[in-house]
């Protein structure tokens, strides 16, 4: 297993683009990891049970044993990246997608490091929608109709923002309230080459821009939220996550309309964890700026 370690300066693999024909298929999985020592092993075992060619755990800001647990998994398919500093919410997706794209992946799964539910079959469905149905983004419906009646007021507020965005970009009839912000999802190589990688760090924006590129977006599977296996969040964290997603949906709508981006929804600005996103580290990574830590 090859490990790539990142500091404030970067030590990075130089990866050559693969050449491949129309029948070539390569599945990569990107796994954001922040203090997931109790859950990440099972998540990676689930991904290893799939026909995945590359699994990229993006360890960032972890102060627990997540890194050492991942490094103990002796599989050549696992390529952990480790940042000392937290990258912020969703930035690890863009980092991992960059590696997957450079390695030649034709499909990329995004699965959070704490999702240790029995979801292997669902992940297979997502990939099948890309390779078998020609989809460019296959989403998970985490709130099927029968579950929406029991939502908390906070969850309903988030779902409302997601629904309004999907309706505005012409997708409400086909994907309902599904969003790349919630649950595993898969994207095609075509999407990664059509939408700027940095936009993956604001998932609803990547959704809106994919629509503008006339890419095919569908719901690929259904996993009720509780079946994801993610731990319950404390009220403060839940509130900040909600504010982040609502703000992301607002920003996505402005981006879709080619307007100056704002994070205002119903006259309220929603930031949540958005200010903690480390765009500087993502930019340095994507531009290949690095220095050898030993130099």
Automatic annotation (TrEMBL):
It comes from the Bacteria. It comes from Pelotomaculum propionicicum. Residues 30-146 form the Glycosyltransferase 2-like domain. InterPro entries: Glyco_trans_2-like, Nucleotide-diphossugar_trans. This is Glycosyltransferase 2-like domain-containing protein.
């Amino acid at each position: 297993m090859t490990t790539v370690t990142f500091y404030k300066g970067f030590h990075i693999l130089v990866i050559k683009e693969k050449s491949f024909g129309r029948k070539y298929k390569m599945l990569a999985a990107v796994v954001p990891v922040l203090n997931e020592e109790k859950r990440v092993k099972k998540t990676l075992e689930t991904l290893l049970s799939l026909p995945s060619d590359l699994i990229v755990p993006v360890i960032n800001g972890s102060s627990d044993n997540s890194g050492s647990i991942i490094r103990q998994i002796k599989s050549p398919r696992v390529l952990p990246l480790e940042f000392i500093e937290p990258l912020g919410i969703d930035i690890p997706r863009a980092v991992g997608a960059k590696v997957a794209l450079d390695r030649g992946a034709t499909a990329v799964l995004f699965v959070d490091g704490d999702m240790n539910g029995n979801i292997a079959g669902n992940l297979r469905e997502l990939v099948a929608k890309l390779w078998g149905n020609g989809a460019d983004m296959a989403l998970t419906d985490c709130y099927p109709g029968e579950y929406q009646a029991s939502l908390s007021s906070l969850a309903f507020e988030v779902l409302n923002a997601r629904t309004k965005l999907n309706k505005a970009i012409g997708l409400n009839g086909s994907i309902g309230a599904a969003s790349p912000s919630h649950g595993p999802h898969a994207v095609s190589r075509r999407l990664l080459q059509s939408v700027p990688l940095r936009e993956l760090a604001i998932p609803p924006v990547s959704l809106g821009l994919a629509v503008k590129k006339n890419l095919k977006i569908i719901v690929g599977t259904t996993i009720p939220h509780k079946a994801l296996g993610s731990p319950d969040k404390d009220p403060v964290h839940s509130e900040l996550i909600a504010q982040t997603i609502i703000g992301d949906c607002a920003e996505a709508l402005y981006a879709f309309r080619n307007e100056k981006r704002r994070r205002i929804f119903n006259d309220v600005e929603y930031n949540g964890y958005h200010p903690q996103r480390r765009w500087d580290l993502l930019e340095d990574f994507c531009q290949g700026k690095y220095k050898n830590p030993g130099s």
